Amino acid sequence: xxxxxxxxxxxxxxxxxxxxxxxxxxxxxxxxxxxxxxxxxxxxxxxxxxxxxxxxxxxxxxxxxxxxxxxxxxxxxxxxxxxxxxxxxxxxxxxxxxxxxxxxxxxxxxxxxxxxxxxxxxxxxxxxxxxxxxxxxxxxx
Length: 141
What we know:
The chain has a single domain, classed as YaeB-like fold (2-Layer Sandwich). It has three helices and seven strands; from the N terminus they run E-E-H-H-E-E-E-E-H-E. The termini are far apart.
């Protein structure tokens, strides 16, 4: 018997306005892996992105901060960004859930475009699985 399709969402922070989770598809967790690597290699950058995530969870308007920018209105694809060039890509699934896809450093436009395309692909995979009946499962740390 084939197991049901699953979409794993790893809780990062839950606030008054929304929850931010990291997407897990096909045994991959690029957003969560990026944050873990950043915690080890750039603790200050990690702290800045986590602070932005926490703020977003408590602010009702998604576009309230310059550090959270809409990249693709069709997919509701956003980026968290820092002054040092760190990027964390995500999309919204309804009003109360923001799903992290992947991250990167804005070294060159080509690298940033590659990261944005990966976020778009992960968004599209998420929607395709949902349309096939997959149920998102939120995993608390």
